[in-house]
Amino acid sequence: LKDKKYIYFPLIAEPEIALHGIAEDFFFQLSAINMISRDLPSDHVIIVKEHLLALGRRPKDFYNQIVELKNVFIGDPLDLGISYIKNSKAVACATGTAAWEAAAMGIPVISFSKNNCFNFLDHVFYVNNSDDTKNILNIICKNSWPSNKSKKDGEAFYESSIQDSFDILGKDAFVSWSKSDTKKYSDDKREKLA
To answer: How far apart are CA 177 and CA 114, in angstroms?
Structure first.
């Protein structure tokens, strides 16, 4: 893959709260793959990687439709997604952690949902209608990424996400259901857990 120019499309397990909750405006992953395939320059390909937890959950015809596209290849679901992200020209998906990671690294993202928290970044391209992919892919494929600006913007995005996060009370906040003895937990600790 290091010698190939590709768009990485990580599939999201379905049903999935991130897909059907955050990206409720667009959850047709096969349509998104088709849109990118249609408008992708001839010297680029798409790598589609199945989510490990979704193996065996989709109909075989779903994958047959993907592999019928001449510029689309299936990635190994056992591979780490981060290696696909780092070597890609862009990451495309409705939502998900792969797109978030790419945005934080300054790698372009083709976002198919208006609800993604990273859509405001200049190197994230929101697909508002089906004709947008041609122009978006033209911009992404003709430029060198990550740029100095996209790296700085991604770094600031990452830092702001860390600042908006909170420590979840440490490891003692999680109760093992199999070994749970609720009498061990004081009322004070229970209030914190609630």
So the answer is: 38
- For residue 134 the two structure tokens come to 């041609």
Under 8 Å between Cβ of 32 and 9:
yes
Structural contact between residues 46 and 7, judged by C-beta atoms closer than 8 angstroms: yes
- Which tens digits make up the pLDDT trace of 69-122? 999 999 999 999 999 999 999 999 988 899 999 999 999 999 999 989 999 999
For 7, 54, 91, 128, 152, the CA distances from 85, given in Å and listed in that order, are 9, 19, 7, 23, 18
Q: What is the distance of C-alpha 140 from the center of its chain?
A: 17
Secondary structure element (H or E) that encloses residue 125, with its range: strand 124-126
Q: Tell me which of 97 and 180 has the higher pLDDT.
A: 97
* Contacting residues for 76 by C-beta, under 8 A, at least 6 apart: 49
CA 137 – CA 157 distance, rounded (Å): 23
How far apart are the C-alpha atoms of 19 and 146, rounded to whole Å?
26
Q: Which helix (H) or strand (E) element contains residue 161?
A: helix 148-163
> DSSP alpha helices (H): ranges in 13-147?
17, 29-39, 60-67, 81-87, 97-105, 132-142
DSSP letters for 20-56: IIITTT---HHHHHHHHHHHS-TTEEEEEE--GGGTT
What would the DSSP string read from start to end of 172-188?
GGPPPSTT--GGGS-HH
The whole model's pTM is what? 0.82
